[in-house]
Fold this protein.
Amino acid sequence: VESSGGGRSQVGVDIPFGTNNILVDAETTKGKLAHVVVYARSSLHEATTPVSIPIFDWKGVVSVTFWDQDLDPEQLGGNITWDEPFSISLVTHYVVYFATHEAGHPGRSQVSDEIEEGTYETPVGPEHYHAPYNQIVIYTKSAFVEQTTPGFVNISDTDSSVRDLIFVDRDLDELELGGTILWQKPDDPYLVTEYVVYLATGRAGVGRSQVNSDAWQGYLPYGTNHVFFPPELALGTMIEVIVYTKSTLVEQTTPMAIPLVDNLATVENVTFEDIDQDLDMLGGWITWELPPNIAQVTHYYIYLAADRGAGFGGSRRQELVTVHDAKRVFLPLQTPQSEYDWFLIYSKSALVEQTTPASIFALDFCQNIPHLENNTVKPEQGVQMFDASYFQNSLLMTFRQVTTDGFDLEMISLRAGHYYAMVADTDNVPYITATGIRNMNFAVGGSGCKIQGIAIVSCFTKVYHFSGCGMAAGGVRNYRLFVFVVGYEDNLATLGHSYIDFFVASSYFLYGPELRERTRERMVVGFMPSHSGYVWVGIANRESGAADWIGLSAPEYTGRNDS
């Protein structure tokens, strides 16, 4: 303890004269000993004044650092570094271990080969599982022995996974994705330099596909907490959203992951009943059932379209927009149908409108009405009709029971509005206008032979009976029946009318008369009289469309049949 030898403890045994050194065993406890003293000894006695030197106790590594740059839990990666010892004159190597205790025992595992003095770091490769060790210890080694009391540092395992990962699909089509992936920074963010985002086909990033961003070739710098990808991304077999953090050393291998939920929000069970009773006009309630999940729906857009596959920008015409929780919407009356045969209903989110809508056939109430070009008025056998013309608002079906008193007209109105009909002598036709028809100008007969502005609904077949017309028989006069329907929305100035030109025959026939054969030399006339009596058959010229019967008498006919 003292340089004079006080508090001494002998090292080994007495050393014979001629020897000038002695080995002190490694790991000898120093305690309070501070000097080495050497006494000379004769055969008589030991010297009382020794030679002494102070003991210099060499210390090894005193400062060890390790920053775990592998951002996965239970995995290490990075450089172990240490400071140069106070004195290195006797140090030849450094030996680094993972250990269960700061003293380096009872369990330890060497990190690398012995490291020559002059190097003060050694790498730990990424994804190194450190269990069960929780310490890093470093021993200095001399040519004589390895240190028994190492420098050490606690292992601080960095876990830098993102928190609160969220993805809400705002593409409302089935098997399509679109929206923003959001997250919060890790609790331990200090070594994070970038984020990497993937969609994956399996758990823990199996079959992953990177969600690219414009910056960093798909890597997002620390400080960013979201990445957006546009709609209509095919879902395919993707089942997870995964986000990795990345340090300057390595990307995580155990990311944060959440299930990938495809948000489908198509309306169901769409219905439409047209209550607009005009041809080519629609109106009425469109109804539907809400999608199972409307959390991302902001509106519904309703279109008339040429076909069910009329996609975004296709042959379609927007009609209505309504809110996310609406179950029906009213299509205004008098909505033109034109070439559009389908209603398409698209759900829309804050991001985008669907591309695969729900649909229903746009059935016009008047859809079963025959097209005008395929129908002409059908006169009853024996009715002498020689011309007919149609305009947009009426469809004349049959013309029968024509007598001097009146007739029956079967027709269909193609517009809801007001109905006008009258009979006039053909001599007055050039003077009759649309206004004249409405005012019954030049009309023959009494009130029973006129229809002046009665309300009419469309698309229903109806028979109108005309009587009290007082028409001449035998083709003495020709007549025109005017039919004029004015729709509620029609412009009278541009509206045309339909008509039938006819004359009243002098006899009734159950069948005929008709010409079965006609040549220069002969003709065959077929007919079936409606009652017994006399019949005359003759041939005469027509002037101005009227048969010239005046002046002819029965004896002048060439044939007689009293059967």
Remarks:
- The two ends are 168 Å apart (CA to CA).
- Helices lie at 434-438.
- Confidence is low (pLDDT under 50) at residues 544-563.
- The longest strand covers residues 509-518.
